Every structure is written in C-alpha cells, then in structure tokens.
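Hi V.,

Quick status before I head out on leave. The structure for the redesign project is tokenized and pasted below; the design run finished overnight.
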C-alpha cells in the first residue's frame, strides 16, 4: 500500500529534523563567545635568549695605494702600477673575498691670498680581503713593500661555519630558557603548559669590530712583523614562544 501524501510529508519533515540535529551535534551554530575568547586568550608569551662567544679567526683588511702626481694621468698611472703589484701579491697569497672598494682621483689646490691654484692630483685605489689572523701581520708588511701606502681598517670576524654552528647552539639555549620561564610562571599560578601555538626567531647582528685607525705605512725592512691580534665575536639569538595553558 502506498503511503499517503500526509505520511510522505511527515516522513520528509522527520528526516529534515534528524539531519538538522545531526548537523548541530557536529558543529555548533552558535558557540559561546565567552568560552571561545577564553581559549584564544589563554596564551603565555615568553622570550628566551642564547649567547655564544666564538674566537675571531679571520681578519678583514682594507688597504690601498695613495699617490700624488703633477697631472691626472701621471697620478692615475702611478696608482694603477702600484695597485697591480699589491693585488698580484694578495692573489699569490690566496686571500679570500678580494675586491676593489674604491678608485678615486681628486685635484689638489693651493690657496694663497684668496687665490686657488691647481698644484696636482691625488689618486687612490683601495681593496679589501680576508685572511687568517695569524697571517695578517706579515701580509700587511709585504703589501707595504709591494706598494701599499695606506691601511684604512683591520677588523676581526669568525668564519661562516663557526657562526652557523654557534647559532644552532644559541637557538637551543634560547628555547630552553623560554620554556623554563614558562614552566616557572605557570607552576607558580597552579597551571600547566600545553602545546606551543607560535614561534618567532630573531638573530641579533654582531656588533661591528673595532677598526684600526688608518695609518701611513713606512716601516724598515728589518722591523718585526706588525702584530695583529683578534678577539671574540658574540652570536646572539632570541626565541619567542606562545604557549597555550
């Protein structure tokens, strides 16, 4: 016997009610905003810091040639000749990251009785490079003998590999410190930490090494090698954790 129209309608309504109830059981349509906000705000933010000090095994050197000439051409040619000799020496010593950092040619004037008179030109060619610190002093002396007449700066850095390893150690220290801080605070409040919901990592820039003041190099051939002594470089990392409790 076929169901009546009324029966079919009732069956359809009951099915709709069942589907609606099932939907409500899986995903509440009107969640409690107070409870949802409480879940969102129960997050503790802590920051840990890791510091590692590593020896600076490399010297970053900036040096060059500065000459005077009666004409621009004479000054530039003299600077180029002496610079080529210095560069050939540095390449023979297999220095790292050798590059030109400046080429300048400027007129030189003499002022007398409020009158300006051109008296010549100054040509300057400078380069930078890296070398193991224990080799820096002797190489500076050789560069002067080859034609270098100015040393602009000598700074000290660690190798890229040493910095990368120190960053990994500092990261672990920063994470452990942040987690320890969170445990101490939550334990004092009678709470327990749960999962980590956010992580932020920051690498602090190392402070610039102290430069050696520029000096004119005029050393005797029998003089002892120029002493160059490195130091330590700080690698710092901070980790910020957001922890739900």
């Amino acid at each position: 016997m076929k169901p009546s129209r009324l029966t079919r309608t009732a069956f359809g309504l009951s099915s709709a009610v069942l589907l609606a109830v099932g939907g409500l059981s899986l995903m509440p349509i009107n969640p409690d905003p107070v409870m949802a906000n409480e879940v969102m705000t129960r997050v503790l933010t802590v920051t840990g810091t890791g510091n590692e000090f590593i020896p600076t095994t490399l010297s970053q050197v900036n040096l060059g040639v500065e000459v005077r000439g009666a004409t621009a051409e004479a000054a530039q040619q003299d600077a180029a000749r002496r610079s080529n000799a210095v560069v050939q020496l540095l390449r023979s010593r297999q220095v790292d990251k050798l590059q030109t950092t400046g080429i300048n040619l400027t007129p030189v004037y003499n002022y007398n009785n409020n009158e300006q008179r051109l008296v010549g030109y100054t040509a300057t060619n400078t380069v930078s490079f890296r070398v193991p610190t224990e080799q820096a002093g002797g190489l500076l002396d050789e560069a002067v003998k080859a034609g270098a007449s100015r040393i602009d700066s000598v700074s000290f850095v660690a190798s890229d590999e040493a910095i990368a390893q120190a960053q990994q150690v500092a990261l672990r220290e920063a994470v452990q410190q942040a987690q320890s801080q969170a445990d101490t605070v939550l334990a004092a409040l009678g709470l327990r930490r749960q999962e980590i919901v956010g992580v932020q990592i920051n690498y602090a820039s190392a402070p610039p090494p102290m430069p050696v003041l520029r000096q004119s190099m005029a050393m005797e051939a029998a003089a002892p090698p120029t002493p160059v002594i490195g130091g330590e470089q700080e690698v710092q990392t901070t980790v910020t954790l957001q922890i739900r409790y």
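Above is the designed sequence. The longest strand covers residues 115-132.

G. will cover questions while I'm gone.

Best,
W.
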